[in-house]
Amino acid sequence: MLNVVAIEIRLTADPELRYTPDGTAVCNFTGAHNLKFKDTEKASFIRFVAWRRQAEVIAEYCSKGSRLALSGYLQSRSWEQEGQTRYVTEVVIRSLSLPDKNGNGMPKTKAPPEDTPLPTDEDDIPF
Hints:
This protein is mostly beta strands. It has one helix spanning 52-61, and strands at residues 5-11, 16-19, 25-36, 41-51, 67-81, 84-97. A five-stranded mixed β-barrel has the order 1-3-4-6-5.
């Protein structure tokens, strides 16, 4: 079965970086993607999560309005909050590119760190 997402988005708010109890970085954010039809345009809002070094890179180099080109996979999860079960479907990022204003490469002011692969085994995910 294939579970692959490749998309270019703009951040709708600043990314939220936090750390798990064992010190693993995790970054959550929402991005907007415009879908163009014949004579209309519709925005889709998608939730994303990045882990470890990629989470830190996104939090350091990106802010509201930043463009990101991402690839990853869909993940659904649930949790209990105030007696209700909450559900979310999000894209877990495997690779990313931070295009500059012209759409090619990284911002010129800071160099990107090397990509760090994300966990592929569900036992490596700390939740």
